Predict the 3D structure of the following.
Amino acid sequence: MFNPNTIDDIANRLADALPSGLGNLKDDMEKNFQAILQSTLGKLDMVTREEFEVQKGILAKTRGKLEVLEAQVAEIEKHLQPDLAEN
């Protein structure tokens, strides 16, 4: 789901942000950051971009069908109006 290179890049940036006095801990902290990020991001209930785009397409298609059906119902109601007035 998440690009491992992206997680590595974020972990590296976090490790680089450590004060210079902690430079000897940088590798350990970077590995810890990677593990925390992977664990935390893995728990998120997210979809991939591809899954999102598929659902977006389905929604657009459904919306189009709904608009057609609404127009058909409006046309039917228009034709029924005179009949309802007579009763």
Remarks:
- The helical segments are 4-16, 26-43, 49-86.
- Residues 1-46 form one domain.
- The chain has a mean pLDDT of 83.
- The chain has two domains: 1-46, 47-87.
